[in-house]
Design brief:
The chain contains nine helices and seven strands, in the order H-H-H-E-H-E-H-E-H-E-H-E-H-E-E-H. With 238 residues, it is α/β, with parallel strands linked by helices. It has a seven-stranded mixed sheet with strand order 3-2-1-4-5-7-6, with helices on both faces.
Length: 238
């Protein structure tokens, strides 16, 4: 895990032997399950360390190792939520994944790693965000590469409590995407805090963390029913 160790240090994180062991087990389980469940196109040992594990750890720049509720929307194979949990074990993590086979992998992985305070929810974000147990109850909501920012904002901001934040991971040039989503973010009760550029040698291209503060409640009409945020972003209706 040398590339992960070096990259994490560049971010300001020193990984313990126990954490490195967890990442090694994560890799082995990911590759094994990927033979029968489509979890990722990236299985090379070094690339998983950087493109998945290290990339996921960038969100920890906006997290504290405290027992606060964190939600990962559309987590897939557990990115970025589980790497963040390995680094910061005190966070209370909920993983939302709509595909049952991927959710089965996540449950297995949580057990295999002995992670406490992790919940796997098999559901569409559009539906779960209208459940009172989840709506506006999370301090931090995370999402990595799920959709364009205008769509992501509709899926994620309803989960954020007022005073909380949504952290979206993006690659490459993001300014135009952020500008296009600005009106949507405001409608949903958010306000752009910053776009943090992440330039680490071990990552193949520049990353950005788009941080949106939740300032007011999200109107009950949002998110709209499953599939609509992707097909008809709010910006296209204004």
């Amino acid at each position: 895990m040398e590339r992960l160790v070096v990259g994490a240090k560049r971010l300001g994180f020193d990984l313990s032997p126990g954490q490195l062991e967890s990442f090694q087990v994560y890799y082995e389980e990911l590759v094994q399950w990927n033979k029968r469940v489509n979890l990722t196109a990236i299985t090379d040992y070094e690339r998983v360390q950087t493109s998945h594990f290290l990339d996921s750890l960038t969100v920890a720049l906006f997290l504290d190792d405290l027992p606060t509720p964190v939600l990962d929307v559309g987590t897939g194979a557990g990115f970025p939520g589980i790497p963040a949990k390995i680094l910061l074990p005190r966070i209370r993590l909920s993983l939302v994944e709509a595909t049952a086979k991927k959710a089965a992998f996540l449950n297995h992985l949580v057990d295999r790693l002995g992670l406490e305070g992790v919940e796997v929810v098999t559901a569409r974000a559009e539906e779960l965000a209208h459940d009172a147990r989840y709506r506006e109850t999370f301090d931090v909501v995370l999402s990595r590469g799920v959709a364009r920012l205008d769509t992501l904002a509709e899926l994620a901001l309803p989960f954020c409590m007022c005073g909380g934040a949504f952290v979206a991971q993006k690659k490459g040039k993001v300014d135009a995407e952020v500008d296009a989503a600005s009106a949507v973010i405001g409608i949903l009760g958010g306000r752009l805090r910053e776009v943090r550029r992440i330039a680490v040698e071990e990552l193949d291209e520049e990353r950005a963390l788009v941080v949106i503060d939740k300032c007011t409640g999200t109107p009950q009409a949002y998110p709209r029913r499953a599939g609509i945020p992707q097909k008809r972003p709010i910006r296209a209706r204004r």
